[in-house]
Amino acid sequence: MKPLARSFFKRDAVLCARELIGCTLGHAGTSGVIVETEAYAAEGDPACHTWKRHGARDFVSRNDPGTAYVYLNYGMHWLFNLLVKGGERDGFVLIRALEPLGGVDLMKERRRRGEVEELCNGPAKLTQALGITGDHHEVDPLSVRGWVLAKPAKTVATITSTRIGISQATDYPWRFLMKGNRCVSFPV
Predict the structure, then answer these.
(1) What is the pLDDT of residues 20-35, one digit of tens each?
(2) What is the architecture of the domain spanning 6-178?
(3) Do residues 138 and 63 make contact, with C-beta atoms less than 8 angstroms apart?
(4) DSSP track, 114-174
(5) What are phi and psi of 56, to 5 degrees?
């Protein structure tokens, strides 16, 4: 696997979200192919944390592209995002779903589930399966040992849809899915 370079995250957040489909994400002895993402723009996007959270705006200004933005959703689920900046539109890419590759038994143990398709088919499920928590906020997966962010082995077909699981800016077509993959959170 060829690691992603920092330059991969120095461009438009929407383009980056689309091109992360098919890449490999790994952490703590587990890994999977990214099959679903969503983009969020740091400016002008009411669904992005930067819209109302000064701390999120500070995060964007002080961190390098590719840095992990991990937050607790609804007080119980960790969600994993990657910072994208230096292109036309700075923002975040939420990793929504993975197709498990490595460490599947460990994922099953962490998730207390047996079906492979259900281990990482949602943003909270994948963080639990990969062992990602708030301790990983502001970690740089591109340079920290134990993380994998790698280019896809082959080109994959993607589908574009509107974002889901949010209440504002739901009409933005910034959700990307691997065509025909059974591990996405909500098929189109």
Answers:
(1) 999 999 999 999 999 9
(2) Roll (3.10)
(3) yes
(4) --GGGTSSSHHHHHHHHT--GGGTT--TTTSTTEEEE--SS---EEEE---S-SSSTT---
(5) -70, -40
